[in-house]
Design brief:
The chain is of the alpha+beta class and 183 residues long. The chain has one domain (33-181): tt1808, chain A. 32% of the residues lie in helices and 26% in strands. The chain has five helices and twelve strands. A hairpin with a 6-residue loop joins strand 11 (152-154) and strand 12. Helix 2 (37-52) packs across helix 5 (164-181).
Length: 183
Amino acid sequence: MTTTPVLIPVEEYLRTVYRPDCDYIDGEVLERNRGETPHGRLQTFFAFFFRLHEDEWNIDVITEQRIQVRHGNFRVPDIMLAALPNPDSRIVRTPPLLCVEILSSKDTLREIAKRTLDYAAMGVKSSWVVDPWRRKAYAAGPDGKPHPVSDRLIVAGTAIAITVAEIFAELDRLEKRAADRTR
């Protein structure tokens, strides 16, 4: 059985508060998969990591804020980095330097690739996709296509970088810490 999506006007999407926030693509409100501990731990890690480098990299770290990827279409990346000065406030309309997506257990790379393609079409320099379940990382450049990365995630033309090993070592540390507290 095929369900017909319920389409709403963009104005209604923009004045509605969704908890958690949703993407809006071609008139359809799309829920994002999230709410699982590995996703939350990595999102917190990235926000903290980037916050430590805000002054050095001249960036604004933004979590779960709407970004207008094209006329009438909006995404909500897990993390984004905007170059300073950042002219956007309520909705990001200026292409950020980086969008980071962290997969939930139900996400597929095919679905996430739609997001990275939207970011690239908007002019985002780089998108990173991190899969805490399979311990894999992907990077998408200006073409928007995610490619596996085993050593280092970077934003070309900037000092923004992190090793894949560092990401998963931190996830392992956080998971061990949580396990130790339950004993």
